[in-house]
Design brief:
Helix content: 25-40%
Number of domains: 2
Number of strands: 3
Shape: elongated
Structural class: alpha+beta
Radius of gyration: 20 Å
Protein name: AP2/ERF domain-containing protein
Distance between the termini: 47 Å
Strand content: 15-25%
Organism: Streptomyces cellulosae
Order of helices and strands: HEEEHHH
Number of helices: 4
Strand order of the largest sheet: 1-2-3
């Protein structure tokens, strides 16, 4: 699904006995599960992961950070962090 590729998955977590399950709320089909030693552990992890940090949303937005990511990639490439010879530049 295009929205998941652009914005990331929106996982919802639930527990069924000793198993924690997750599924993308956007309906793209991404899902998984993990088994814990006790049902209490599965419930605790599902509750901890199934929350939305709305106060943090702008800082985590993939599209909002695109200019910063491009600038860092350009800077890494310019400074030789991509495995090539390292260019030494100093600015004052």
């Amino acid at each position: 699904m295009l929205r998941c590729h652009l914005l990331g998955h929106r996982f919802r977590f639930l527990h069924e006995g000793e198993t924690m399950r997750w599924r993308c709320a956007r309906g793209c089909g991404a899902e998984g599960s993990k088994r814990y030693p006790t049902a209490r552990d599965a419930e605790r992890y599902a509750r901890a992961f199934d929350r939305e940090d709305e106060a943090d949303l702008g800082r985590r937005a993939p599209l909002g950070l695109l200019p910063l990511r491009l600038w860092r990639a350009w800077r890494r490439r310019r400074d030789g962090a991509d495995g090539g010879p390292r260019a030494v530049t100093r600015s004052r």
